[in-house]
Amino acid sequence: MRYVLLLRGINVGGRNKIVMAELRQVVADLGYDKVETYINSGNLFFDSTKNRGDIVAEFQTFFTERYPLGR
């Protein structure tokens, strides 16, 4: 199934910087397929056979540990 993850408040005004190429790579390394981003907006597209709840939990943990934004 194809998913979209919309990240809010990143790469705006020089704050909460996330490099999209790096984000694509680490998400692919987590086991997601056909990972794409749209410009520098934080919109992330990917394919996965995991269920929605597992994906949400994995990304919550991932962003808390890898990109502790707003702290």
TrEMBL record:
<dbReference type="Pfam" id="PF08002">
    <property type="entry name" value="DUF1697"/>
</dbReference>
<dbReference type="InterPro" id="IPR012545">
    <property type="entry name" value="DUF1697"/>
</dbReference>
<protein>
    <submittedName>
        <fullName>Phosphopentomutase</fullName>
        <ecNumber>5.4.2.7</ecNumber>
    </submittedName>
</protein>
<dbReference type="GO" id="GO:0008973">
    <property type="term" value="F:phosphopentomutase activity"/>
</dbReference>
<keyword id="KW-0413">Isomerase</keyword>
